[in-house]
Design goal:
2 domains; TIM Barrel; single chain; 23% strand; Fructose-1,6-Bisphosphatase, Chain A, domain 1
Length: 516
C-alpha cells in the first residue's frame, strides 16, 4: 500500500470531488487549482477518452448535461471538445491536471465509471511520472493494477460488509472506497482490522460528515470542500452525535426492486402448487401456519441474505429485528394463512424494504390471480409491469354511499371500533367486507377494489408493502391521528381513494372513541 498523504494533525484526508466544485465548474483546471490552493489532500477528477485517443476530464459519457449537446464524448476529437466553453470553463486534458498539481501537497485521484479509459489514462500518468491515486470501476482498477504493481488503488465497494479477502489480496488497495450510506461501525472496524483504510463519497451534509468521521473514515470526498475541512479540523469535541443517514444507495434500491419482483414471481408459482403440509398453530387455535408459510420465508431469507449482506430481516414466521439506520426487509410469506389452510383462494405474499420507518420498495403478489403489484418510493406503482393509478378505468370515488369498505379481524375477533365502523358505514349506505388478508385488503385499494380500507392494528410484515403501493398509486394512507404515515409506530392504518379518505377517517375515529 502507498503511504498515506495527509496533514499529520488531521483526523482524515479531505478529497475535493471533481475539484473545488462548489466554487467552479466541475473537472476544470480552475476547480482543480482552487482545491489545491485550499489544501485538499486529494483532488478527484473523472476521465474519458476522445475519438482520437486523448484523455480528458469529464464525468458524463455525454456532453448533454454540462454542454447542452446530445453527443458522446467518445465520438468527439479533442479539438472539437477544446472548442467548447471559454475562459476557465473548458475541458482540460488529464496531462494538464497532472502538471497543475506537480510538486503540490495535493494528489490527483483519477476516477472512471467504466474500464475503457483505464489503459489510456495509465499511459498518460506513466509518461509524466506523476504520483496519483485511482478509483472507480472495479475492472478499471484491475487494469491499473496489471500495468502498475505500485499503483495507489481505492477499491470500489458498495456493500454493507467488508470486502472479501480474495478481492483485497488481488487489488491490494490503499483504501476501500464506499458510498457513505453503507458504512457502519462494524464494517469500518472490519476493514481496519484487515489492515486497510476506509474512504467514502460523496458527503455534503455537516451531520453526515461528523457521522462518517466518528465511525473512523480515513478519507472523505465532498463537493463542499471548505465545510469538510472545517469539520475535520474542529475535531470530535466540536461535533454533535449525529444519527446514521438511514438511506439506500441507488444501486441497492435498483437491485432490491429486481429481487423483489423475482421473489414475488417465484412465490406465486410455489404457493399455488406446493402442498400445505402439516398445519400447526402459534398464538392460538385460529393463528395457523402451514408448510408453505415456512418454505416461502426460508427461500426469501436465503436469497436476501446472499444478495444483500449487512441488511436486516424481519419475517412473520422466523422473526428478526430492525437495526437503526440499516435497510430492513419485512416479509409475510402467506398473508391469509387461515384462508390457505381452509382452501379459500385469497392470500398474498408481502415484501417491503425500509430504512427505519421509511419504506423504499414493495411488492404484493396474489398467487390466485397471478397478479403482482409493486412500488418504488417516488417512482409510482405498477401492476404486472403496467402503471397503476388508484382511479384507473373508473370514476373517482367522491362518497362512501354505494361503496365497499374493507377491513380485517384482529386475528379472529373484531378490533376496538370495528363494529361501530360497520354500523356507521352502513348508515351511509356503504358495505363492509372482511376477506381474510390484510395485505390484499390494503393493496386492493390501489387497484380500485373498494373505496377504502381500515386495519385495526398495523404490522409492517403484513401492511407496509401495501401501504407504499397505495401511496404511490395516488391513494391516501393515514394513521389513527389522521397523519399521512406509511409506517405507524402504534395503532391502525387507513388506505383510501382521495375523494373519500376524510369521510372514512371520520367514521374510523368515531368508532374507536365509541368502543374504547
Amino acid at each position: 500500500m502507498g503511504a498515506l498523504r495527509r496533514a499529520p494533525e488531521r483526523l482524515a484526508c479531505v478529497t475535493a470531488h471533481r475539484g473545488d466544485s462548489e466554487k467552479y465548474r466541475e473537472n476544470t483546471l480552475a476547480a482543480i487549482e482552487s482545491a489545491r490552493d485550499a489544501g485538499a489532500d486529494f483532488v478527484e477528477v473523472d476521465v474519458r477518452v476522445t475519438a482520437d485517443g486523448q484523455v480528458v476530464l469529464l464525468h458524463d459519457a455525454s456532453l448533454l448535461r454540462l454542454w447542452g449537446r446530445d453527443e458522446l464524448v467518445s465520438a468527439q476529437t479533442y479539438a472539437q471538445l477544446a472548442g467548447l466553453g471559454s475562459g476557465t470553463d473548458t475541458i482540460p486534458l488529464l496531462s494538464e491536471a497532472l502538471e497543475l498539481l506537480r510538486g503540490s501537497g495535493s494528489t490527483l485521484l483519477i476516477d472512471m465509471d467504466e474500464a475503457a479509459p483505464a489503459a489510456a489514462a495509465a499511459a498518460v500518468v506513466q509518461a509524466t511520472g506523476a504520483d496519483v491515486a485511482w478509483c472507480g470501476h472495479i475492472d478499471a482498477m484491475r487494469t491499473i493494477r496489471s500495468v502498475d504493481g505500485d499503483a495507489r488503488i481505492w477499491l470500489p465497494w458498495n456493500r454493507r460488509v467488508a470486502p472479501p479477502r480474495e478481492l483485497l489480496n488481488e487489488l491490494r488497495p490503499e483504501f476501500v472506497n464506499s458510498e457513505y450510506v453503507v458504512l457502519s461501525e462494524g464494517m469500518v472496524e472490519a476493514i481496519h482490522d484487515a489492515g486497510y483504510r476506509v474512504s467514502c463519497w460523496t458527503v455534503d451534509d455537516e451531520a453526515d460528515m461528523q457521522w462518517v468521521l466518528r465511525l473512523g473514515a480515513d478519507a472523505v470526498t465532498t463537493n463542499r470542500l471548505g465545510l469538510l475541512q472545517r469539520t475535520v479540523d474542529a475535531g470530535p469535541g466540536a461535533w454533535d452525535a449525529p444519527e446514521p443517514p438511514g438511506r439506500l444507495t441507488g444501486e441497492e434500491l435498483f437491485e432490491a426492486h429486481l429481487t423483489m419482483r423475482e421473489l414475488a414471481e417465484w412465490a406465486v408459482d410455489f404457493t399455488r402448487t406446493a402442498e400445505r403440509g402439516t398445519i400447526s398453530t402459534k398464538a392460538n387455535e385460529a393463528d395457523l401456519v402451514t408448510a408453505v408459510d415456512l418454505a416461502v420465508e426460508r427461500h426469501v431469507r436465503e436469497v436476501v441474505e446472499a444478495r444483500f449482506p449487512g441488511h436486516a430481516f424481519v419475517g412473520e414466521e422466523y422473526g428478526g429485528a430492525a437495526v437503526k439506520g440499516v435497510p430492513c426487509w419485512y416479509l409475510d410469506p402467506v398473508d391469509g394463512t387461515t384462508n390457505l389452510a381452509n382452501g379459500v383462494p385469497w392470500t398474498a405474499f408481502s415484501l417491503a424494504l425500509a430504512v427505519d420507518r421509511t419504506p423504499y420498495a414493495a411488492v404484493v403478489a396474489d398467487p390466485w390471480r397471478g397478479e403482482i403489484l409493486e412500488a418504488v418510493a417516488g417512482h409510482g406503482a405498477r401492476r404486472d409491469g403496467a402503471e397503476l393509478r388508484i382511479d384507473q378505468g373508473r370514476e373517482p370515488f367522491t362518497s362512501l354511499a354505494g361503496a365497499v369498505v374493507l377491513t380485517e379481524l384482529a386475528q379472529h375477533l373484531p378490533w376496538p371500533g370495528m363494529l361501530s365502523l360497520l354500523e356507521q358505514a352502513g348508515r351511509r349506505h356503504a358495505t363492509l367486507r372482511i376477506m381474510g388478508s390484510g395485505t390484499l385488503t390494503l393493496a386492493g385499494i390501489a387497484a380500485g377494489r373498494g373505496a377504502g380500507a381500515v386495519i385495526g392494528s398495523f404490522g409492517p410484515m403484513d401492511h407496509l408493502a401495501a401501504a407504499l403501493i397505495v401511496r404511490e398509486a395516488g391513494g391516501v394512507v393515514l394513521d389513527e391521528d389522521g397523519n399521512e404515515n406509511l409506517f405507524p409506530a402504534q395503532g391502525g392504518i387507513l388506505a383510501a381513494a382521495p375523494g373519500v379518505a376524510e369521510e372514512l377517517y371520520t367514521l374510523w375515529r368515531a368508532g374507536i372513541r365509541n368502543e374504547t
